From TrEMBL:
It comes from Marinomonas aquiplantarum. InterPro entries: Flag_assembly_chemotaxis_eff (IPR053716), Flag_FliJ_proteobac (IPR018006), Flagell_FliJ (IPR012823), FliJ (IPR052570). Residues 22-131 form a coiled coil. GO terms for molecular function: cytoskeletal motor activity. This is Flagellar FliJ protein.
Length: 144
């Protein structure tokens, strides 16, 4: 088996790895978007309640309960912000892994192409040598 054929196997393996990492990256980016959307919804929810509280004339008891509820929503927002941060870190790590995998695939492909050129040069020289030998034999046979 020619070296370029063996290299093609390695290129194919690297490409599969790159595709796998790319799929993980896509999932991680989708999670970031989902988590950010959830955060935006929580913030909008908190804003609505805050503006409603200002419009309503609540008794002290209801104001306290209302404030506890708003505090829980703020805690949920803080937790969601942390989740967004973790999701972004995971997506960044996946991006770095994908860039590494892509670089490896490209490097192997370049090396494979180099081997193909070397093999072609060797094959061309072999054909030229055979052609020269054939021409020389014809010349000697014609002069006998």
């Amino acid at each position: 088996m020619k070296k370029s054929h063996r290299m093609q196997i390695l290129v194919d393996l690297a490409k599969r790895k790159e595709d796998s990492v790319a799929q993980q990256l896509a999932r991680d980016k989708a999670k970031v978007q989902h988590d950010m959307q959830k955060l935006a919804e929580l913030k909008e929810y908190a804003q609505q309640y805050e503006s409603e509280r200002n419009l309503l004339g609540l008794s002290p008891y209801l104001t306290t309960n209302y404030q506890h509820f708003v505090d829980r929503v703020q805690q949920a927002i803080a937790q969601q912000e942390a989740a967004v941060g973790r999701a972004e870190q995971q997506a960044d790590m996946s991006m770095r892994l994908w860039l590494q995998a892509r670089s490896k695939t490209k490097s192997m492909d370049v090396l494979k192409e180099k081997n193909i050129k070397i093999e072609q040069t060797i094959e061309d020289k072999k054909e030229q040598r055979q052609s020269d030998e054939f021409a020389m034999r014809r010349f000697f046979d014609a002069n006998r």
